[in-house]
Each structure stands twice: as structure tokens, then as C-alpha cells.
UniProtKB/TrEMBL annotation:
The gene is lacE_2. InterPro entries: Bact_solute-bd_prot1, SBP. It is found in: Periplasm. Keywords: Periplasm, Signal. Residues 1-24 form the signal peptide. Its main location: periplasm. SUPFAM superfamilies: Periplasmic binding protein-like II. It holds the Pfam family SBP_bac_8. The keyword Transport does not apply. This is Lactose-binding protein. Belongs to the bacterial solute-binding protein 1 family.
Length: 414
């Protein structure tokens, strides 16, 4: 019987059930992208694996990002684990501590011409424990400001990129231009990542301004959300939502990609959607703050699950997918952790719709940024945070008191 490695492309996966049948001997690979451009590229990489394993077929199984970790947990607990999968940075310590991830180190280091040392210690920090390698980063992607240049022209103001190149792109200017856009064009000045900053993207909404102010989420068992720096940062956001009315508020849906908001925060993988945009656009660094520039990075890795039926073959596919050639190919959407690729034209010129002079800012953010907070109990922490963060997003909210409530909820878990 032929061995098959399966990565199924579908957006209808619910609680581990797929739209089409998967044979018992198949090896599954879960991802959270439904982008046709992403899947086309990944299928090309999978097809190239046939040069060594002609009998292996590869497909992708898509679980929406907002549900990904929870549904993956259900699959593992229900005895229906995938064999490979993408893993978000906040979930990495949880899954590693549960001993459900295969050690990829022996396979990677035994693979000819793999050059494991090409991954910096910093890039691998979240995914290693001594000599144990829990996963291989395929995306070390900083959050960038996407902006609608057409709306900035209509408002008669400089774009975030122009301001950044003059050294004037900071949190104060960010608030100013967002308010001006709303006043002069009637469009929202800013919306949170994918319009979800009030629910599934809470950390993506809060961490960039908090770090720009010099604050933090948690460290060494202590919560930082109620420290003065974090409070000041969130108070600014709150004022933009309810006083300036420049940020899309709770209960309303903006859509940067259709032109209803002048700015959003996202990663370059989302640039694949911009080919459909009916406006001129660009990307810029996050605004700096009282603490200076503080790039925030989202990192994701490929992992192999211990309980998968073909874990050795799966590990071999991880080595193939993350070799230098394929990392360079993925760099058009996913900023690499390999130093040789990140420092080359293969990265700055990889994305056909983002100019190289803008991609340079992505490289700089990777070099200087810090990954989003993670913790062994991240799922429980985020669940405990959610109802307390909800209290922030009322017009009459006491921001400091609400953030003290966040810390009271999460500190027992830290």
C-alpha cells in the first residue's frame, strides 16, 4: 500500500471533522490559512517532496485562526490528532508542556544540507528546550501598519511611511492622523487586526501600544497590564475609540480591505489580499512611543504530533518544507527565521506586490522586535482575560480599574 501524506485544503473543518474523507493511513497537516495564493504555494512545495517520495501525496486541512488552537486541542483529546500542523506562538509552551510534540532535532540535524545553524538562537528560542526541538518557525512576522494611500491623499496628509521616513511616526501622530482621516473623509482612521481586536485578537490590539509605551503583559509571574505604562497606552486607544471616534468601535465592522478604514495592523501574509484592493496602499512600521520603537512579532512554527501515525515521515516533510530553497519560496508571504534568507534579496524582493523599500522595514522589525507574549497556560490566561477586557470597551469605562481587573484574573495563572 502506498504511504500518503495528506494536507487537505478546506475551510469547513469543524471540531476535527472534515468535508471530505481521509484514509486511515493518511498523514494530516493542519493550517489556518484559506488563501488560494498560500495554498497554491504550499501545494507546490508538497509536490516537490515527490522527488524523494513519489508515493506521498500532500493536502492541507484548514481550521479558521480564531478557532485553531481550541479545535486542535479537541482533535488531540478526542484521539483524532493530525500528524503535522502549524502552531501559534502563544500556544507553543502549552503543547510542549503536555508532551504532545515530537522532538524534530534528530531529523533536522541528520538531514543533508539542512544547515540547522542557519536558524538563530533567538528565532528558535520559543521552540527549543535544550537540545529538544519542538517546532521549526516558518513565519517570524512583525505587525505592520497597512494604510490606504488614496484616503490619505483625499485628507491631504502625509502617509505613515512618509512620516516614518522623517522620524515623525509615533503614537501621538498616529492618533492625530486617524482623527483627521475620520473628520475629512468620513472613513474610519484605524481598525484592529481583521476587525477582531475586541474578541479573538485582543493581544494583537493591546500589545503594540503597550510596548511602545514601555509596558508589558506579564513576566516572572507578575502581570503588567495595570502598570502606569500599559494604562497610559490603553487610555490612548480608549480615547481614539470613544472620544475621537477614529477607531472602529465594538459592535461595528470596518473593512480595511474594501476601503472603509484608512489604516489597520496586520502581517505581510495578508498582502496577498491586496491584489484585489481598489485603492493605492502601502505598509509602514508600527508607530513608536515614549519607549521608542517596539516592533511586535507574531511567530508560527511547524510541529509534528507524537500521536500521529506517520510521525517519522512527517518530520522528514518538515525538514523538506523548511530547507533553504522552500523557506525562500515561502518568504513572499511568511518572513523567514533562516538568517541566510532574511538577509538576502530573496526576502526583500520576494513579495511581488510590496516594494523592496517597504520590505526593508519588515526586515528591520524582525531584527529589533519581540515575539508576542506566551505562557504554558496561555489558553486559560486568555480565557480569564476576555470578560475583564470587555469592561474596557465602554464609553464610560475606568481604564485603570478595568486593567486592574485583568491582572486580578490572570495573576493566579502566571
Amino acid at each position: 500500500m502506498k504511504t500518503r501524506l495528506v494536507i487537505l485544503a478546506t475551510s469547513t473543518v469543524l471540531f476535527g471533522l472534515m468535508a471530505g474523507p481521509v484514509l486511515a493511513e493518511d498523514l494530516r497537516f493542519t493550517v489556518w490559512t484559506g488563501s488560494e495564493a498560500h495554498l497554491k504555494m504550499l501545494n507546490e512545495i508538497a509536490e516537490s517532496f515527490k522527488q524523494k517520495h513519489p508515493d506521498v501525496n500532500v493536502q492541507f486541512e484548514t481550521i479558521p485562526a480564531a478557532d485553531y488552537t481550541q479545535k486542535l486541542t479537541f482533535q488531540l483529546a478526542g484521539g483524532n490528532p493530525p500528524d503535522l500542523g502549524w502552531m501559534m506562538e502563544d500556544a507553543a509552551p502549552t503543547f510542549a508542556a503536555a508532551n504532545v510534540l515530537m522532538d524534530l532535532g534528530p531529523t533536522l540535524k541528520a538531514t543533508e544540507d539542512y544547515d540547522y545553524a542557519d536558524y538563530s538562537e533567538a528565532a528558535m528560542g520559543l521552540w527549543t528546550d535544550g537540545e529538544t526541538v519542538h517546532g521549526v518557525p516558518f513565519s517570524t512576522s512583525p505587525f505592520m501598519i497597512f494604510y490606504n494611500e488614496t484616503l490619505f491623499d483625499e485628507a491631504g496628509i502625509e502617509t505613515p511611511l512618509e512620516l516614518a521616513e522623517k522620524g515623525e511616526w509615533n503614537m501621538e501622530k498616529f492618533q492625530e492622523v486617524a482623527k483627521t482621516i475620520k473628520e475629512k473623509t468620513g472613513k474610519w482612521g484605524f481598525e484592529f487586526k481583521d476587525g477582531q481586536g475586541y474578541d479573538s485578537r485582543i493581544m494583537h490590539a493591546l500589545m503594540p501600544p503597550i510596548r511602545a509605551y514601555g509596558g508589558y503583559a506579564w513576566a516572572d509571574g507578575e502581570c503588567g497590564f495595570d502598570d502606569p505604562e500599559a494604562v497610559a497606552a490603553v487610555e490612548q486607544l480608549h480615547g481614539m475609540v470613544f472620544k475621537d471616534t477614529s477607531i472602529v468601535p465594538p459592535g461595528e465592522q470596518g473593512d480595511y480591505f474594501s476601503g472603509s478604514s484608512a489604516m489597520t495592523i496586520n502581517q505581510i501574509s495578508r498582502a496577498s489580499k491586496m491584489s484585489e484592493a481598489g485603492f493605492d496602499w502601502g505598509i509602514a512600521p508600527l508607530p513608536s512611543g515614549p519607549a521608542g520603537e517596539a516592533p511586535v512579532i507574531g511567530q508560527a512554527a511547524i510541529v509534528v504530533f507524537e500521536r500521529g501515525g506517520k510521525k517519522d515521515l512527517a518530520a522528514e516533510f518538515v525538514a523538506h518544507m523548511t530547507n533553504k530553497e522552500n523557506v525562500a519560496k515561502m518568504a513572499q508571504f511568511f518572513p523567514p527565521a533562516r538568517k541566510s534568507v532574511l538577509d538576502s534579496a530573496a526576502f526583500t524582493e520576494a513579495n511581488s506586490i510590496i516594494p523592496a523599500d517597504q520590505m526593508v522595514h519588515v526586515s528591520e522589525a524582525i531584527a529589533n522586535g519581540k515575539v508576542l507574549p506566551s505562557h504554558e497556560r496561555s489558553p486559560q490566561i486568555l480565557a480569564a482575560m476576555a470578560p475583564k477586557v470587555d469592561a474596557l470597551w465602554r464609553a464610560d469605562a475606568d481604564v485603570k480599574q478595568a486593567l486592574e481587573g485583568v491582572c486580578a484574573a490572570v495573576e493566579p495563572l502566571l
